[in-house]
Design a protein that fits this description.
Helices cover 68% and strands 0% of the residues. The chain is an all-alpha fold.
């Protein structure tokens, strides 16, 4: 599951070099992911096939950034209507990272950014599977369905990546 979590972290982040490498080597990547979770691998394959690699960055920006149609921040879903609790949630999540030695520079990204959360899970999954499962169930699973619904409404290729994430979370 570690590889699938890592690939999903890359796919949900802004399309940089690692993202482009996955797109170029999609057949090999999907084959490797199939050993961990066949359904998630198939959803990732649908994502990679539906994406125009030349326009991935434009699509990403239009869906997740300016202005965002869908949010990749857990706190926007978990704390809807309780914005005064955001700081507490950020500290709570960052506390999980700190315990496992995972450092997220605050200036780079918030701890509740989905790619950061998935990167953390990919790093701790083999070391402490139970901690990874508890983290995923508490901080990601409750809202990924809302993200997927938003991505379907926006008709974004990332809807398939959200499906893959759901498949992974169902097995944790």
């Amino acid at each position: 599951m570690r590889l699938t979590l890592r690939v999903l972290a890359i796919l949900f982040d802004y399309p940089r070099d690692e993202f482009k490498k996955i797109v170029r080597e999609r057949d090999e990547v999907v084959e490797a992911l199939g050993a961990e979770n066949r359904e998630a691998a198939e959803a990732i394959q649908r994502f990679l096939k539906s994406l125009d690699p030349e326009k991935a960055d434009e699509e990403y920006v239009s869906v997740f950034e300016v202005p965002p149609k869908c949010s990749l921040y857990a706190h926007t879903y978990l704390l809807k209507g309780k914005e005064d609790m955001v700081g507490q949630l950020l500290l709570e999540v960052k506390g999980h990272y700190k315990v496992k030695g995972y450092d997220v520079p605050v200036r780079k990204e918030l701890p509740t950014y989905l790619p950061v959360m998935l990167e953390y899970l990919s790093l701790v999954y083999d070391e402490d599977r139970e901690a990874a499962k508890r983290f995923a169930r508490r901080y990601i699973k409750p809202w990924v369905g809302h993200l997927k619904k938003c991505l379907y409404k926006a008709n974004s290729p990332w809807k398939f990546a959200a499906e893959a994430l759901e498949k992974v979370l169902d097995t944790l």
